[in-house]
Amino acid sequence: MFFFEHHGVEEKESFQTFKSVNQTFPLHFHRAYELIFVNEGELIVTIDHKEYIMHQNDIAFIFNNQMHEFKTLNQSDITIVIFSPELIGHFFMKYKGYVPENNVIHINDIPNLTILDSIYRQKSFLYDICGRLVDHTSFIPVEHSSKTKVLHKILLYVDQNYSEDCTLKVISKQLQYDYAYLSKLFIQMANMSFTEYLNHYRISQACYLLKNSQQSISEIALNCGYNNLRSFNRNFKRVTNHSPSGFRELS
Prior knowledge:
Blueprint: E1 2-4, E2 15-21, E3 25-29, E4 33-47, E5 50-54, E6 58-62, E7 68-83, H1 89-94, E8 98-100, E9 104-106, H2 119-136, E10 139-141, H3 145-161, H4 168-175, H5 179-190, H6 194-212, H7 217-223, H8 229-240, H9 244-250
Parallel strand pairs: 1-3
Antiparallel strand pairs: 2-7, 3-7, 4-5, 4-6, 4-7, 6-9, 8-10
């Protein structure tokens, strides 16, 4: 199971920081670059199916559209920086179509990110990290780039249209690709069928609405693409091991 996040899609200069303690985040990707700093503890980060065990003062530099996830190993305190490629435009253009052979680097001290209160300080900080990465590793071409782009188009379509009629046949017409080709490609790259992914995606959206809205279960089902309440309840229970009402009570 993986999903698309909108970070960096707006193609404007953005720089966001987040603190996280003992957290796990599932497989996902986005257009923005991402840095993960380990302040304390240990973290398992997987980037494009390659697993890294990170320790204090390690940094993971995740390129745009690299599939990645992380989970805490015993205990972790991390800082995440997500920033648009335009902030490091020269680096972005030079290494576009390439990814690091080794995404993790080690530094002596984690920098104080609270002082990065202007775009100039942010760019200076980011280019310094870019320089360390270039000194640390080589870069390799993105494999299966054409297939990856097609997969991203499918996932973005789901992200924008999951509440509508969102079958792979509809998507194949919209993207002007052969249905059988897309079906085979999706299974090959995602290790699950498109229908299975769509159900998981819709249920994840339903979980969010159950926790963060006052909508009725029927309204949530409809807003998440289920015209049949019985089908929604069945899929919800299969994915979460709870009924929608039971899940809402847990939250």
